[in-house]
Amino acid sequence: MPSWRAFKSNTLQPIPDEKVGPRAVSFYWTAAVISLAGIVDALYLTIQHVTGQTVRCTLSGCSEVLSSEYATIGGVPLALVGAIAYFTVFSLAILAAFGYAFAWKLLSIVVGLMFLTTLWLLYLQAFVIGHFCQYCLVSAAVTTCLTVLVLLTLRRR
Amino acid sequence: MKRILPFLIILVVLGVAVGSVVYYKKRAETPTASTDPVSPASNSASAAAATPAALAADEPGADPPHAVGPANAPVVLEEFGDFQCPPCAALHPELQKIEAKYGSRVRVIFREFPLVPTHEHALTAARAAEAAGMQGKFWEMHGMIYENQKAWHKLFDVRPIFEGYAARIGLDVERFKRDVGSSTVERRIFLDGKRAHALGVKGTPTLFLNGREVPFDSLPAERLSPLIDAELARIQK
What we know:
- In chain A, helix 3 (22-50) packs antiparallel against helix 5 and helix 3 (22-50) packs antiparallel against helix 7.
- The N and C termini of chain A lie close together (8 Å).
- Chain A has helices spanning 2-8, 17-20, 22-50, 62-66, 78-97, 102-129, 134-155; strands spanning 57-58, 72-73, 76-77.
- Chain A is mostly helical.
- Chain A is 73% helix and 4% strand.
- Chain A has a two-stranded antiparallel ribbon.
- Chain B has a 5-stranded mixed beta sheet, sandwiched between helices.
- In chain B, a hairpin with a 2-residue loop joins strand 5 and strand 6 (212-213).
- The longest helix of chain B has 25 residues, at 5-29.
- Chain B is globular.
- At the A-B interface, helix 3, strand 1 and helix 5 of A face helix 1, helix 4 and strand 4 of B.
- Strand 1 (57-58) of chain A pairs antiparallel with strand 4 (203-204) of chain B, so a sheet runs across the interface.
């Protein structure tokens, strides 16, 4: 399988595309596009936070979540942490798409951690805060999609 | 080129991301930046999220509305609010600042828009405020409920709390308890909801300045004032 060598390789040198395989490359590009959606979502919430707004109340109950004590870690908005995480995933996916095989391995680890965080945040929304925020749910969906992509590439080994 | 292209893409995305955060933060810190007082026409255009005024006429809401300020005030601010919504509670002191600053030039109207599936006590609170209104003390109850929002929003049963507020603002508590469940109160909340629906209100707080929706980020008093000034200037012309 062509992608196997790409995945095994720990070299920092780009590997020519023909050795990675077009299907793997399309996975990397998909991950990049999906993580871009995650960046936009997390950035929107970051901007809401730094401009001192709690998002308007709607029938979906956002401000309860975004103004809760779980919305920040030591004064840093969780949305910013999310934006940085999605940006990391985006960068690694782009690198992987351009033949830097090591990047996908790193990406898999980052996405794994993000998925665990997502599960924790969903638990908080469902059982502690008692409200869901649609922007947080979009983020959960994005991370879940990324996780599925990573799992698919792992299975191909 | 192929070697640097991935890094170029990453840098561009990083630049756009950081740039947008900085831009919005700057814009939020300079209240007059988006509201140029020289051109009130473009100003009101930016303040307007284009509301079909015709729809509003068909659904006048509860009559008479709860209002501060004279009926012939040149500027009418109409708020759709939910008593359990944190940003609505934050808007309450901002509108008080506006009332103090503009006096009889501004009329502030409050409309009930309890977000029932989101806020378990929103409807109870709306009923309490309306019941207080039947004894002529809507705004007193409105203030009590918003100012103490953090004290009651997590309780299981808020009715004793609101009855306590009723006693504190000098209402006939027995009558208040009866009025809370009355069809008059129910009807007012329903009519305000119909108006909210006609105007396309999706969340709270939503504020209309002479029929045009004020952008959410212009709700603090220091950002709302330039919009009101521009509207006053436009009317005087």
